[in-house]
Amino acid sequence: xxxxxxxxxxxxxxxxxxxxxxxxxxxxxxxxxxxxxxxxxxxxxxxxxxxxxxxxxxxxxxxxxxxxxxxxxxxxxxxxxxxxxxxxxxxxxxxxxxxxxxxxxxxxxxxxxxxxxxxxxxxxxxxxxxxxxxxxxxxxxxxxxxxxxxxxxxxxxxxxxxxxxxxxxxxxxxxxxxxxxxxxxxxxxxxxxxxxxxxxxxxxxxxxxxxxxxxxxxxxxxxxxxxxxxxxxxxxxx
Length: 238
Hints:
By secondary structure, the protein is an alpha/beta fold. Helices cover about 50% and strands about 15% of the residues. The chain has 2 domains: about 1-150, Response regulator (Rossmann fold, 3-Layer(aba) Sandwich); about 165-230, Arc Repressor Mutant, subunit A (Orthogonal Bundle). Strand 1 (about 1-10), helix 1 (about 10-20) and strand 2 form a beta-alpha-beta unit. The longest helix is centred in the C-terminal third of the chain and has 15 residues, at about 200-215.
């Protein structure tokens, strides 16, 4: 059962999202709020698996909200809110964040991912796409809309262009298994799918992904995807 906190400044959207998610047998809504600041407070107190962040927040405020939820100084009880038992996992683990927005701006999407968002979904997504994205993010995998994937790859590639004297990395940086995992990540497979297809444990997949990100100095899976495309490990579909 994955728990969700809804943060959306439009009341009708909050009601609709709550009804949609509550109708799913494996999802539960632990609260909702119209305020980004209150979302930070409630996420610390209720410790949901996922914070679904959307509405008409300004870009800068949104990014700061994401950063504060994803990287809290500590998770403690907040006065005025009941402390939930925290089905998300071990105490101290922040919730994962799925951003639901009307903008397709890749700069905003990349900033959200860099701040700690685990997924980025446009508001015109279907109900099935939304619930599926919540499950994927709750499981620790990333969600990025196909419309934004290529633009994000270009953004990351431009950002990490090597500077004079900077050490460069190539495919030989990785072990054979790490390379297999990197190709799978770039192909859009979830950790569970990678584990099944490569016949390894999900915890081993997570370990490989962490090593890959560390080797290329990346903070998010999308940067690993950009690396794989840049070095020709995978190629865009025609």
